[in-house]
Design goal:
The protein is an all-alpha fold. The chain contains 10 helices and no strands. It is elongated, with a radius of gyration of 19 Å.
Length: 168
Amino acid sequence: MPKIIENLESRLIEEAKKQIEEVGYGVMTIRSVAKACGVGVGTVYNYFPSKEALVATHLLEDWKQCIAAINVVSTYSDAPRPVALCIYDQLVSFSHRHQAIFRDEAAAASFTGSFGTYHGVLRQQLALPLRKFCSSDFTADFLAEALLTWTMEQKSFDEIYGIMEKLF
């Protein structure tokens, strides 16, 4: 009879996160995560079809929390600046929390193919809370792209928002 392990999926994700931070994405393997969690490799594959899927699940769980925080601010704000600032802060925090992945060449090579698809989804998620302040969906998309791009280029919020506010 197979053993039941409480919260195995979250344990696998946490172990992958730990290994990425300690040894890097390129060194972390499904086998090393399985061994650290005391399960067989096949058991990990029951939850995640690949190393990339395991890491993407970890990133997605964290990103959902970022979007939730942005949505709270958006719901209660009647002005665009607090919403834009929250988006900026969430992007900065997310990138800092996952810098071990974002700076890893092996990770970049693994995720390059899906970048275009997910970048568009990300832009749409960031544009949605901005739409109530914009005259068109395109303007909201444009502002979301500006926040995304220039935040990742480590521009200050005030510098970015100085241009953005002219478009609201």
